From TrEMBL:
The keyword Ribonucleoprotein does not apply. Belongs to the bacterial solute-binding protein 7 family. The keyword Transcription does not apply. Residues 1-21 form the signal peptide. This is TRAP transporter substrate-binding protein. Keywords: Signal, Transport. It comes from Salinivibrio costicola. It holds the Pfam family DctP.
Length: 326
């Protein structure tokens, strides 16, 4: 009897201290699959936090728009329903016009140029561009260059004329498709597969890893390897959440995040190459390579969009991005 009472006391002490020490849950919500740079980065962050400060914080990752789709994730962040998101840079235009620079078609020659711009003073300053709206950009994460997929082959701009393309919620991307007389439709990422499958739209633009992981290639017989724009992310938290953290904890979380972003960036190019190859191997979609002349026609048709958005974005910022190509 005495023994039983003692073990009951021991158990209740254990339960009480466990309840007391329950780690604070940090929710990381995103819209893509787990086998993408963003999906992998978020899981890496979860693991590093568990390893380094798991007694105090537990990161829960919600992929595939499970918790919030891209129409809602920024509001959810500001309401405190999630603590980390990593939306595409194309989705911030409600909060800042500056990040639109990343959407300008044919601005960056390759991902190295994108990276140089992001790491430049001008690029780093852009991480603060949504601060007045209560959000803090903690770093850039790569996905990669966008390709054009469609139900019919797109070799020259006139092939896109009259066709409907899903775009992210960006006026620059809308103007880019207007420039080739196509019809842009702003739709959430979670709806793209069904829109393509039912032929409600004719095409879309995305990276190799998104086209592969969301199976767009199964319902799009042609993918033009256009590399016409970039799809990268800003890993974002809310100022309210971030600033109330004890300094020492914030430091540990930031270091874990920086390392996770570096990891995501390191695997992004390989993922793009592998997923492109898997699409080729599937035989479901034909990849079209443009001649210099064909590509030149797309550039000529779409580049006037830069001028159209120069006042909103700032000529200096566009110039700084152009310089990153050298
Ligand atoms: C899209 O909506 O196409 C992308 O932003 C999805 C993503 O987060 O990569």
């Amino acid at each position: 009897m005495k023994k039983l009472t003692l073990s009951a006391i021991a158990l209740s002490v254990t339960l009480a201290s466990a309840a007391h020490a329950a780690p604070e849950v940090i929710k990381f919500s995103h819209v893509v699959a787990e086998n993408t740079p963003k999906g992998q980065m978020a899981l890496h962050f979860r693991d590093l936090v568990a390893e380094r400060i798991g007694d105090k914080y537990e990161v829960e990752v919600y992929p595939n728009s499970q918790l919030f789709g891209d129409g809602k994730e920024m509001e959810a962040l500001l309401l405190g329903d999630v603590q980390f998101i990593a939306p595409s840079l194309s989705k911030f235009s409600k909060y800042t016009k500056k990040l639109q620079v990343f959407d300008l078609p044919f601005l960056f020659e390759d991902m190295e140029a994108v990276d140089r711009f992001q790491q430049s003073d001008a690029g780093q300053l852009l991480l603060q561009s949504v601060k007045s709206k209560g959000m803090i950009g903690l770093g850039y994460l790569h996905n990669g260059l966008k390709q054009l997929s469609a139900s019919e082959p797109l070799r020259v701009p006139s092939d896109a004329s009259g066709k409907k393309f899903r775009i992210m919620s960006s006026d620059v991307l809308a103007a880019q498709f207007d420039a080739v007389d196509a019809v842009p439709l702003k739709k959430p990422f979670s709806e793209v597969f069904t829109l393509l499958q039912t032929r409600a739209i004719d095409g879309q633009e995305n990276t190799w890893s998104n086209i592969y992981s969301k199976k767009f290639f199964e319902v799009q017989p042609y993918i033009t390897a256009s590399n016409h724009g970039v799809l990268d992310y800003m890993v974002t938290t809310s100022a309210e959440f971030w600033m109330q953290l004890p300094d020492a904890d914030r430091e540990v979380l930031k270091k874990a995040l920086d390392e996770s972003v570096a990891y995501g960036n390191q695997i992004a190019q390989q993922k793009a190459d592998d997923d492109r190859q898997k699409i080729i191997d599937s035989g479901r979609s034909q990849i079209l390579t443009l001649t210099d002349k064909e590509r030149g026609e797309w550039v000529e048709a779409m580049q006037p969009v830069w001028q159209q958005f120069e006042d909103e974005i700032g000529a200096d910022l566009i110039q700084a991005a152009v310089q990153a190509n050298q």
